[in-house]
Amino acid sequence: MYVDFxxxxxxxxxxxxxxxxxxxxxxxxxxxIFLCFLFFSIxxxxxxxxxxxxxxxxxxxxxxxxxxxxxxxxxxxxGAIFKTTDGGENWVKQYEQKEMYLNGVCxxxxxxxxxxxxxxxMQRGVVLKTNDGGIHWMRVFNTAKRVLNALFFIxxxxxxxxxxxNLILKTTDGGISWEKQRSALDACFETVFFIDKKxxxxxxxxxxxxxxxxxxxxxxxxxxxxxxxxxxxxxxxSLYFTDVENGYAAGWRTDxxxxxTTALIFKTGNGGKSWSxxxxxxxxxxxxxxxxxxxxxxxxGYDHQGKKELLLKTxxxxxxxxxxxxxxKSEIYTIQFIDKMNGWIAGEGLxxxxxxxGDSFF
Length: 362
Prior knowledge:
The protein is mainly beta and about 350 residues long. Helices cover about 10% and strands about 45% of the residues. It has helices spanning about 1-10, 10-20, 25-50; strands at about 60-65, 70-75, 80-85, 90-95, 100-105, 115-120, 125-130, 140-145, 150-155, 160-165, 170, 180, 185-195, 200-205, 210-220, 225-230, 235-240, 245-255, 260-270, 275, 285-290, 295-305, 310-315, 320-325, 330-335, 345, 350-355.
């Protein structure tokens, strides 16, 4: 049953519940019930949301990438892959496989790209690759019973993919073969970001008397991973580094007594040796963070109490964050700004674009 439901709605609250079932105790049960209630509230809010005119991509979108202001790809529910060549005005479906969902996409150039996700019918994590801009896609890797959540390529040959049950994969031959790497914890990894072939970070959560957000760093290309103390969090969903020293981690934590989730953004200025919390009591959860400029950054997710999108912007490197209202009233799964002016947000069925620095989305 969990696979079919997970296929309908990919997001991490259900992952919380499945992991709680594997680590059964009273505290976990209470937390699981609350998170499932919260999950259904979010799902219903998304279904009720009154969408203004959006893109022609009519699927839930979990991953998004533009390589310039015109060309981009979106992936998500039903294993769908869409491509645009006009900045998101129109999207052409390139691939679909109903028994799959795709969580992440990464293109190295206009021709070569990868997607990761999960085939819920076969119970296998999958990596797909294209060499012709998405006209044809081929499966280059399978892993049994493990969801793949994100990937990152530093060049045409070298990339990483991460997922559930401590899964870290690395390729050095353009996806022909993948080597499994390991961290010190049995974790669910949701995000990966590398600065060069040696230095990178992964993040997610692990179970130990409650779910805890974690960040790991490598300085040797993933041979060894060192845990970093990011602060009190239940989940770290997204990472972004502007250089080897300055980076951001976004996610949330849950207060069981108050029955609320609090959006979190942590910042480091020393490569992750220390992290400082930036937001002040903003309700909701954050799924994605990006910085098109060292000073200008965005974070996006969902405010379940307000039943609307959660969209934040900073213009001073994260010292202050301003809530923005784009009026879509549904969850944002991913955000990308390719420069200060041009950006896209995507989530429950539509993709919105801004060409004025986020003052408006259409």
